[in-house]
Amino acid sequence: MADGSRTPHAEVEEDPLLLDLHLCFDLHNTARAFGDVYRRVLRETGLTYPQYLVMVTLWEHGELPVKRISQLLRLDSGTLSPLLKRMEAAGLLTRNRSLADERSVIVRPTAEGTALRDTARDVPREIHAAAGLSAQEASALQQSLRRLAASLDAS
Amino acid sequence: MADGSRTPHAEVEEDPLLLDLHLCFDLHNTARAFGDVYRRVLRETGLTYPQYLVMVTLWEHGELPVKRISQLLRLDSGTLSPLLKRMEAAGLLTRNRSLADERSVIVRPTAEGTALRDTARDVPREIHAAAGLSAQEASALQQSLRRLAASLDAS
DNA sequence: GCCTATCCGATTGTGCACAATTCGGTAGTA
DNA sequence: TACTACCGAATTGTGCACAATCGGATAGGC
Description:
The structure is a homodimer.
Chain A lengths: L10 H4 L7 H21 L6 H13 L2 E2 H8 L3 H13 L3 E5 L7 E5 L1 H9 L3 H9 L3 H20 L1
Antiparallel strand pairs in A: 1-3, 2-3
Helix pairs in contact in A: 2-7
Chain A binds a DNA duplex through α2, α3, α4 and α5.
């Protein structure tokens, strides 16, 4: 923000929007707050949050086709293509056409990308600490969010 | 999406990310689902979700300086400036320097912008129906989200 | 072997989020 | 009055989300 108005929930509550907007609005605000925390926590790694998600999937699964990453992270090809190119330029991964199916592009972490896992080791703990939720609270919130998302998707 | 992979929560659950990521991930997915619904519901109005938020504040408050809109909606000037210009070009509002303080720009809905309220009349109800939550459930979820956002902001 | 439907990725264009900077305007102070 | 500190919008640049489209590749039916 260009000024100091990022102060947590100050002016908004005293002058609320119409009631129906609140839920989606709070959802966005919370996502934004998460974004701020991830930005700070990931600063050392040089990754953005979506890029961190990609690295986590590569650390967990090893090489993956773009299509699979898209499914796992629900990221569009229009998002993934330039994102993966930036990460390739940063030396974190390689992109190569599959020999078996030349439509498919296989993404593989480089040694540098794999090594970044050590730098990112504390990220989960720091995020968890910042959220300040118990495992039960987090799980309950997840349940609510998933039910809501399912309902929205189904509508 | 370019293909049919937007199917609600299919492949993700069978092959989960690390546990710590889930909460933020579900948050993003739910925000995305809300985005889809708002896009559909707002299609008739020609507004995007952030633009709808601006119109709602103008319908509620009448004319407002940009700074106030920024505070109410937590939108950055780098976001608001081009957004308001597009809305001005669409004939929904006017932007004029305040006579009292020429640093300030006052945003006013046009007649067309005010009339759009009728077109958007059913938006709250449709969103509520799509979410499928009782008032209690929605309120509880809001509480959780606000507590979480506050904790993240404070960290 | 050929044709067609389908799949996959990349690309293009628009809109939003955030950081950093710029610039004019205002107000407080010497 | 002149100087300075601060304020408010706008701009620039980067990155992500989504829609629409294209072109290459595969597989199935004939």
